Amino acid sequence: MLEKEEDIREAAGMYNIPKMELSDTMQEISRLAKQIRDKKAILLDEARVNKSSTKAKLPRTAAAKDRSRSVSILRKKMSEVGVEASESENVNS
Hints:
The protein has a domain at 20-53. Helix content is 57%, strand content 0%. The protein has helices spanning 2-12, 24-54, 71-81.
Protein backbone atom coordinates (compact mmCIF):
# COMPACT_ATOMS: atom_id res chain seq x y z
CA MET A 1 0.00 0.00 0.00
CA LEU A 2 2.89 2.37 0.84
CA GLU A 3 4.57 1.52 -2.45
CA LYS A 4 1.41 2.45 -4.36
CA GLU A 5 1.26 5.79 -2.57
CA GLU A 6 4.90 6.37 -3.40
CA ASP A 7 4.30 5.54 -7.07
CA ILE A 8 1.38 7.99 -7.15
CA ARG A 9 3.59 10.73 -5.65
CA GLU A 10 6.34 10.07 -8.20
CA ALA A 11 3.84 10.12 -11.05
CA ALA A 12 2.39 13.41 -9.80
CA GLY A 13 5.90 14.93 -9.86
CA MET A 14 6.18 15.51 -6.13
CA TYR A 15 9.93 14.76 -6.11
CA ASN A 16 10.80 16.66 -9.29
CA ILE A 17 12.95 19.69 -8.65
CA PRO A 18 11.60 22.68 -10.55
CA LYS A 19 14.04 24.51 -12.81
CA MET A 20 14.65 28.04 -11.76
CA GLU A 21 14.91 30.51 -14.56
CA LEU A 22 17.13 33.45 -13.74
CA SER A 23 16.39 36.92 -14.99
CA ASP A 24 18.91 38.74 -17.16
CA THR A 25 20.26 40.75 -14.24
CA MET A 26 20.65 37.63 -12.08
CA GLN A 27 22.47 35.87 -14.92
CA GLU A 28 24.78 38.86 -15.27
CA ILE A 29 25.43 38.90 -11.52
CA SER A 30 26.22 35.18 -11.46
CA ARG A 31 28.54 35.56 -14.47
CA LEU A 32 30.41 38.43 -12.80
CA ALA A 33 30.62 36.49 -9.52
CA LYS A 34 32.18 33.56 -11.38
CA GLN A 35 34.74 35.89 -12.98
CA ILE A 36 35.59 37.35 -9.56
CA ARG A 37 36.04 33.88 -8.05
CA ASP A 38 38.28 32.84 -10.94
CA LYS A 39 40.38 36.02 -10.65
CA LYS A 40 40.78 35.54 -6.87
CA ALA A 41 41.93 31.96 -7.40
CA ILE A 42 44.49 33.08 -9.99
CA LEU A 43 45.80 35.83 -7.69
CA LEU A 44 46.12 33.38 -4.78
CA ASP A 45 48.07 30.93 -6.94
CA GLU A 46 50.38 33.69 -8.17
CA ALA A 47 50.96 34.89 -4.61
CA ARG A 48 51.88 31.35 -3.51
CA VAL A 49 54.35 31.00 -6.38
CA ASN A 50 55.94 34.40 -5.71
CA LYS A 51 56.16 33.79 -1.97
CA SER A 52 57.79 30.40 -2.36
CA SER A 53 60.26 31.61 -4.98
CA THR A 54 61.45 34.74 -3.15
CA LYS A 55 61.91 33.41 0.37
CA ALA A 56 64.96 31.53 1.50
CA LYS A 57 64.31 27.97 2.57
CA LEU A 58 65.24 27.19 6.14
CA PRO A 59 63.96 24.05 7.81
CA ARG A 60 62.22 24.36 11.15
CA THR A 61 64.64 21.89 12.67
CA ALA A 62 67.69 24.05 11.94
CA ALA A 63 69.42 25.27 15.07
CA ALA A 64 70.02 28.94 15.66
CA LYS A 65 73.44 30.15 14.59
CA ASP A 66 75.78 30.63 17.52
CA ARG A 67 77.70 33.85 17.71
CA SER A 68 81.40 33.15 17.66
CA ARG A 69 82.34 36.65 18.82
CA SER A 70 80.82 38.84 21.49
CA VAL A 71 81.94 41.56 23.86
CA SER A 72 81.51 39.36 26.91
CA ILE A 73 83.74 36.64 25.43
CA LEU A 74 86.33 39.27 24.45
CA ARG A 75 86.37 40.73 27.99
CA LYS A 76 86.67 37.27 29.50
CA LYS A 77 89.61 36.34 27.27
CA MET A 78 91.30 39.68 27.90
CA SER A 79 90.94 39.27 31.68
CA GLU A 80 92.46 35.77 31.39
CA VAL A 81 95.45 37.28 29.62
CA GLY A 82 95.71 40.03 32.21
CA VAL A 83 94.34 43.06 30.37
CA GLU A 84 91.79 45.12 32.30
CA ALA A 85 88.72 45.80 30.12
CA SER A 86 86.66 47.78 32.62
CA GLU A 87 87.49 51.09 30.90
CA SER A 88 85.74 49.97 27.73
CA GLU A 89 82.13 49.81 28.93
CA ASN A 90 80.65 51.14 25.67
CA VAL A 91 82.71 48.96 23.36
CA ASN A 92 79.84 47.73 21.21
CA SER A 93 78.14 51.11 20.61
